[in-house]
Amino acid sequence: MRWTIATIMLVCAVNVFAAIRSDTIPYEAGGVTMQGTLVYDDAAAASRPGVVVFPEIWGANDYAKSRGRMLAESGYVAFVADMYGGGKTIEEPKEAFAIAEILYAQPKVIIDRAVAAVTTLRTSGKADPSRIAAIGYCMGGGIALNLAFVGADLKTVVAFHASLVKRVPEMGQIKASILVLNGAADKLVSPQETQDFIAMMQAANAKWELVILRNAMHSYTNPNSDTYKALGTVGYNASADKRSWQLMLTQLDEAMDYRHTSAGTATP
Questions:
Q1: Taking the mean position of all CA atoms in its chain, how far away is CA 157?
Q2: pTM score above 0.85
Q3: Would you say residue 206 has pLDDT above 50?
């Protein structure tokens, strides 16, 4: 190939102006104004597969948004969902657990808010509406699984250190393939809950996979979890974090007939 000055200038211009954008997107769910974040590569010429990110109990904070950015760097369009309303984030564990418990007690609200996030991404004009997936962390992993269990139109669902929800799906109801990436040292998910989950997946005839990562505690993907080591139940594991992210990318690529670009880098 012969490189002309004009071609070189064009390539340089693309490199200069291409950037990962993060747009704050308000949307409604049950009369409550939610505040999500749409993250995408503004140099992408065509719509790409989309992934909704459901956060941990801390809400749609900087960590959750960093995962959205990683997805955008990998060639996906990401939407970081708000499950509390108003973009609320929490740092203090007691407050976070209390607010999360209120949400857990309202399964219909959870589904309504989760569906609203998926719809917002699907109609954003940035993502391919026929290729939408969901991932989630901790509470968000349970929310993503809930969506799959009620038959949401998703290509796949990936749940990290997820609460294994008790909702029992009907045979053939689950459309999405499911990948759960939990830790062997996760004290917040009991062996019985894991066995119950396996039995549910088999009874529902779902396309599913459960990976148990060695030495990984709850919240093993979040570098900030070491801040809460005093709780005795959470902790960061860099190896499990990297391994699980690669497994997720493979799952997304296969489910949405796509090939991601780069893995991206997480930031606390």
A1: 8
A2: yes
A3: yes
